[in-house]
Amino acid sequence: MSKIGIFVGTAGGTSMKVANALIEAFEIEEDDVINMEEDFDDVEEQLLAYDVLFLGSSTWGQGDLHFSWVDPILEIEDESIDFSSKRVAFFGAGDCIKHGEHFCSAIGKLHKTFTGAGAKAIGFMPKDSYNYEFSLAEMDDKLCGLAIDEHNESEKTTQRIEQWVGILKSELGD
């Protein structure tokens, strides 16, 4: 089985809620769950240590990543770190009503950085159950990962997580 690491930048706890569901669904050890703000130190030693990465971020401001992702993203882009041997899935939190003009765009930014560094993106979600104006996470009529809105659509969270886990298990096949 592939070694899976979860890396999550969160403030309000929604992205960590998803991370906890992934821990259970994929039987991931606590040591393999990295809170970007508290536990992250090194791109090469931590991110490159895994075959599969589940990367999460809440969306802030005008579609920005959680601040804990800023330095690692700059390092990956500036130093051309190679992720071509990695499979990566993205998840995040946003608000489709108050910030519908950039709903969960943070995961779109993560997608751009990691696929730009060679990673293979997995876990695309159908967008038909979502209602928002615009998102950088939207690609080819799907979302590039799991988008959660606990503010306005909390009743859909469990079903969305279960659907995404099913997609990931099918794509990982191990």
Automatic annotation (TrEMBL):
<comment type="similarity">
    <text>Belongs to the flavodoxin family.</text>
</comment>
<protein>
    <recommendedName>
        <fullName>Flavodoxin</fullName>
    </recommendedName>
</protein>
<keyword id="KW-0285">Flavoprotein</keyword>
<dbReference type="GO" id="GO:0009055">
    <property type="term" value="F:electron transfer activity"/>
</dbReference>
<feature type="domain" description="Flavodoxin-like">
    <location>
        <begin position="4"/>
        <end position="169"/>
    </location>
</feature>
<dbReference type="InterPro" id="IPR010086">
    <property type="entry name" value="Flavodoxin_lc"/>
</dbReference>
<dbReference type="InterPro" id="IPR008254">
    <property type="entry name" value="Flavodoxin/NO_synth"/>
</dbReference>
<dbReference type="InterPro" id="IPR029039">
    <property type="entry name" value="Flavoprotein-like_sf"/>
</dbReference>
<keyword id="KW-0288">FMN</keyword>
<dbReference type="InterPro" id="IPR050619">
    <property type="entry name" value="Flavodoxin"/>
</dbReference>
<dbReference type="GO" id="GO:0010181">
    <property type="term" value="F:FMN binding"/>
</dbReference>
<comment type="function">
    <text>Low-potential electron donor to a number of redox enzymes.</text>
</comment>
<keyword id="KW-0813">Transport</keyword>
<dbReference type="Pfam" id="PF00258">
    <property type="entry name" value="Flavodoxin_1"/>
</dbReference>
<keyword id="KW-0249">Electron transport</keyword>
